[in-house]
């Protein structure tokens, strides 16, 4: 069986290894000068910092590496590529060419055949995902100083990308079994994966735990009118509120800001006198690991559910 | 090999896809050591029956046994005893012939690679060629060699000749019949062409609209059926069982009868019936009966 | 080595065709006592027919005492148990049939009528002989 799995899937496996290696090489080439900005290691420059070298490094990083964020954002498709590429052909190719009838009439019972394939290919998905995450984690070390909760951080680090990979693998494999063809299976995997990812990232993820909301009076004479999140926190929103604590919309907040600066007196005092409060809603930085664990569990759970459906379908021979 | 061992036995076997029954109420007892043809028009349920026999599809109702074992359980022992050649002899197209042999070796406990190599070299099929680059006839031969290398007790073939040209067809039959002569493997194959079956088969199963129309040893069947021609008679009771088909012209009638051992009335002549005529009569009868139900 | 052939369109069961061919070959001396018939497998692989058909033909030939099967070595033609016929007698019979056929066609019979007539006469002759 091992030989068969290798022989059948080596093309995809090798293509993915080449892809991950190329991404890794590109990240090293682009990332090395970025690392060079922090000769003593980026981890020692966590803001706020007074170290001069760190401040220079952070400033340069912000100015010269603004392309890093969209580049990393694109890499969100890599776990999808790994999972879909290994999952879709698993059954679709056999069904497309009729070879399932060849494979399942040898002396290996089909459940054992399926189990061996699932273990090997899901394992490969996780392994490739780990290599990918490793490369990204190294590349991101300096960028981690700006926080890790956004799409270029949270979604690309820790075990999260591996969970995404497994999810993509499961959708593609199940879609392949249902649609009996590889190409529609890829298409389905892309659509479902992207939809679920966006839904979870924008709607579900902020609610993994109740966010912290801080509401306070604006101290007269304060230079900053609004509250700012700490650099590594996940800022979900901030603005002004009326005396009862009711949040203003972003537009009303901006209008109040303009009124205050045009008032002719100290803006903070102006707002204070009008009974305006300021607020911020955020997740503190130390929730990152917990959130990543919840996210990963969710996706691994979804993958397990889809694969269970696949096994059930093959078992009852509804093919 | 004992004379009355059964290679395939089914009891009330049926398979339903959605609301449509692909096969229904199929009870068969196919003898071991024979070459058995499963005949019927397209959509008669042949493929479904064959897939159930090799454990690819589970029955909705009824039982199926191959040499006393249920293929549905999909055990390695049961799988080892059966070789299957699906329609259009699917192969992994990007595998070389050598890869396919290795596939057979790695997925079987019992795999006679020497036998397969011998067959392939006799046919001049290069081992380093990709399966997809072989001719249709060669692909069929490779698929057959793989199935035979399992040294199965029952070899099941779904429309093996349908996609082959006449020469490839002859060569395929030569290999197949050679294997029967050498190993005594029981062969069950489906076909929608009755032509040429007589040279190859001992036993016949005619399937129509998911039902078994007639089955039995071909020589017995031909011996039991006769074509009677005589003066026109009124349509006899169709369900009497002995008249399979009646055709009436203005002044005479032609009857295909089974077990018609009664003495002939004056003016009646009897003739043996050809296999093709026999099969067609049963297929037509199936449609008529279906229509009147 | 003796060669069989099959006529798929003749309507004669394949095993009987094989039996007839051996019978005729023995009759004409093409097969001599002691000659070995092809192995079942050899016949099967050249004609692409069911081995049981060949086995059935060989069994019938054994019952007719034309041949003897020796396990492990093959099937051999027996010592002149059957009447052999000189090729001269055979061609004389054949010529007789040919001239009869020509007369039949001249008289206006077509192929089917000739076959039907032959079958009927043949059938009756056999019944009379048996009686």
From TrEMBL, chain A:
The keyword Transmembrane applies. It comes from the Bacteria. The chain crosses the membrane at residues 12-30, 67-92, 113-139, 159-179, 186-204, 296-314. The keyword Chaperone does not apply. Keywords: Membrane, Transmembrane, Transmembrane helix. Pfam families: ABC2_membrane_2 (PF12679). This is Transporter. It comes from Rhizocola hellebori. The lineage of its organism: Bacteria, Bacillati, Actinomycetota, Actinomycetes, Micromonosporales.
From TrEMBL, chain B:
The keyword Thylakoid does not apply. Gene3D superfamilies: P-loop containing nucleotide triphosphate hydrolases. The keyword ATP-binding applies. InterPro entries: AAA+_ATPase, ABC_transporter-like_ATP-bd, P-loop_NTPase. Keywords: ATP-binding, Nucleotide-binding, Transport. GO terms for molecular function: ATP binding; ATP hydrolysis activity. This is ABC transporter ATP-binding protein. It comes from Rhizocola hellebori.
Automatic annotation (TrEMBL), chain C:
Residues 12-80 form the HTH gntR-type domain. This is GntR family transcriptional regulator. SMART domains: HTH_GNTR. InterPro entries: Tscrpt_reg_HTH_GntR, WH-like_DNA-bd_sf, WH_DNA-bd_sf. Keywords: DNA-binding, Transcription, Transcription regulation. It comes from Rhizocola hellebori. Coiled coil: none annotated. Signal peptide: none annotated. One of its GO terms (molecular function) is DNA-binding transcription factor activity. CDD domains: WHTH_GntR. The keyword DNA-binding applies. Gene3D superfamilies: Winged helix-like DNA-binding domain superfamily/Winged helix DNA-binding domain (1.10.10.10).
């Amino acid at each position: 069986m091992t030989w068969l799995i290798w022989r059948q899937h080596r093309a995809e496996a090798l293509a993915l290894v080449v892809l991950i290696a190329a991404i890794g090489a590109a990240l090293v080439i682009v990332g090395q000068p970025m690392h060079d900005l922090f000769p003593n290691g980026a981890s020692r420059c966590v803001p706020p910092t007074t170290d001069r070298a760190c401040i220079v490094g952070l400033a340069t990083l912000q100015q010269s590496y603004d392309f890093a964020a969209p580049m990393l954002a694109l890499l969100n498709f890599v776990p999808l590529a790994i999972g879909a590429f290994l999952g879709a052909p698993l059954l679709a190719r056999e069904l497309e060419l009729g070879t399932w009838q060849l494979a399942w009439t040898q002396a290996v019972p089909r459940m054992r055949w399926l189990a061996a394939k699932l273990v090997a290919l899901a394992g490969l998905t996780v392994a490739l995902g780990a290599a990918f995450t490793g490369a990204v984690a190294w590349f991101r070390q300096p960028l981690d100083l700006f926080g890790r909760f956004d799409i270029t951080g949270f979604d690309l680090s820790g075990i999260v990308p591996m969970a995404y990979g497994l999810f993509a693998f499961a959708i593609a494999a199940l879609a392949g079994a249902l649609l009996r063809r590889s190409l529609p299976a890829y298409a389905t995997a892309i659509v479902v994966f992207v939809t679920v990812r966006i839904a979870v990232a924008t709607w579900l993820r902020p609610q993994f735990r109740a966010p912290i909301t801080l509401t306070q009076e604006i101290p007269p004479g304060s230079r900053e009118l609004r509250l700012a999140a700490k650099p590594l926190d996940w800022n979900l929103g901030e603005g002004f509120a009326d005396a009862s604590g009711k949040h203003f919309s972003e537009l009303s907040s901006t209008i109040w800001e303009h009124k205050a600066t045009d008032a002719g007196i100290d803006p903070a005092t102006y707002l204070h006198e009008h009974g305006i409060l300021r607020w911020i809603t955020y997740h503190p930085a130390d929730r990152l690991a917990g959130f990543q664990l919840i996210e990963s569990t969710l996706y691994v759970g979804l993958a397990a559910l889809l694969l269970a459906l696949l096994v059930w379908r093959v078992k009852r021979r509804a093919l | 090999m004992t004379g009355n061992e059964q290679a395939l036995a089914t009891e009330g076997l049926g398979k339903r896809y959605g609301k449509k029954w692909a096969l229904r109420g199929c009870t068969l007892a196919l003898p071991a050591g024979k070459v058995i043809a499963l005949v019927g028009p397209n959509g008669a349920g042949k493929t479904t029956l064959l897939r159930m026999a090799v454990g690819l599809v589970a029955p909705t109702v009824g039982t199926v046994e191959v040499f006393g074992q249920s293929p549905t359980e999909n055990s390695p022992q049961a799988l080892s005893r059966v070789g299957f050649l699906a329609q259009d002899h699917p192969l992994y197209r990007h595998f070389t012939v050598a890869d396919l042999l290795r596939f057979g070796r790695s997925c079987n406990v019992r795999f006679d690679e020497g036998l397969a190599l011998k067959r392939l070299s006799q046919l001049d099929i290069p081992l380093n060629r990709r399966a997809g680059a072989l001719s249709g006839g060669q692909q069929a031969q490779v698929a057959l060699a793989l199935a035979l290398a399992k040294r199965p007790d029952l070899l099941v073939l779904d429309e093996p000749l349908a996609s082959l040209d006449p020469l490839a067809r002859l060569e395929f039959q030569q290999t197949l019949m050679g294997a029967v002569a050498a190993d005594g493997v029981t062969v069950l194959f489906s076909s929608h062409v009755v032509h040429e079956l007589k040279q190859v088969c001992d036993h016949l199963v005619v399937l129509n609209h998911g039902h078994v129309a007639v089955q039995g040893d071909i020589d017995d069947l031909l011996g039991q059926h006769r074509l009677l021609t005589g003066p026109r008679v009124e349509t006899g009771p169709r369900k009497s069982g002995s008249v399979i088909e009646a055709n009436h012209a203005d002044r005479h009638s032609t009857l295909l009868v089974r077990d018609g051992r009664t003495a002939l009335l004056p003016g009646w002549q009897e003739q043996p019936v050809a296999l093709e005529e026999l099969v067609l009569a049963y297929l037509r009868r199936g449609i008529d009966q279906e229509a009147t139900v | 080595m003796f060669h069989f052939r099959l006529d798929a369109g003749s309507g004669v069961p394949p095993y009987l065709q094989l039996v007839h061919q051996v019978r005729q070959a023995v009759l004409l001396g093409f097969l001599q006592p002691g000659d070995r018939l092809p192995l079942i497998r050899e016949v099967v692989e050249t004609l692409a027919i069911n081995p049981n058909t060949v086995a059935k033909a060989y069994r019938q030939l054994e019952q007719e005492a034309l041949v003897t099967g020796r396990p492990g070595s093959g099937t051999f033609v027996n010592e002149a148990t059957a009447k052999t016929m000189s090729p001269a007698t055979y061609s004389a019979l054949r010529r007789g049939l040919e001239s009869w056929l020509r007369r039949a066609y001249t008289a206006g019979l077509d192929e089917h009528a000739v076959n039907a007539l032959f079958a009927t006469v043949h059938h009756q002759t056999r019944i009379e002989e048996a009686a």
